[in-house]
Amino acid sequence: MKNNILISLISSLNQKKQSVLLFDSIAAANEIALMLNGQWDGCNGVILDQCDEVAVNTATKLTEATWCYQGAARTVLARLTTDELLRRYAIGERNFINANLRCAVLTSMKLNQINFSHAKLSWAVLNQVDLSQANLTAADLSEAHLIGADLTRAEIVRANLTQTNLQQANLRGANLTRANLSEVNLTDADLTGANLALADLRGAKFHSCNLSRANLTGAKFIESDLAFANR
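Structure (tokenized):
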């Protein structure tokens, strides 16, 4: 009994030592997690069992990043305004890795071949937007609206599309390998030739969805749901 109490106290003390650090770049957070033997949260956070600020500052200097503790008053992942995005896109810039565009409204915009890898686009309104051949690798599109969006041949590998609305979206030839598509709405969407290998499709709505020639190798889905799709 005493041993169990001691183990519990040690576990509690170890948990209290954990620190969550936020960085101004998702890529930097991933790299620094490896450098400091921490746990990357998949976004711009790193969990450390013990925080050595000298080591953190050295790592951020090497990666040219800035950081703060979770809960600090300042924000390190700055929000990109839609006006700034469109201005930079119009003059030829295509690289918007890590962009924070949560809740952005970009309806009917032409953004083909843009690089939104690791971007934060949760709750964004992207209806009818042209994202053909875009790079959305590991992007967060959870609960975003992409009704009628053009995502032909887009790279959407490991992206988070939980509860995303993709009704009538064109996803022909898109690469959705390992993407999280749980509870996504794919009603009337076109996934002809799309790669859905190892994707999570549990709870997805497939009503009149075109899945002809789609690769579902290793994908997680409820078999009965596919009865509503066109295959």
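Residues 2-16 have pLDDT under 50 and may be disordered. Helices lie at 2-17, 26-35, 53-63, 82-90.
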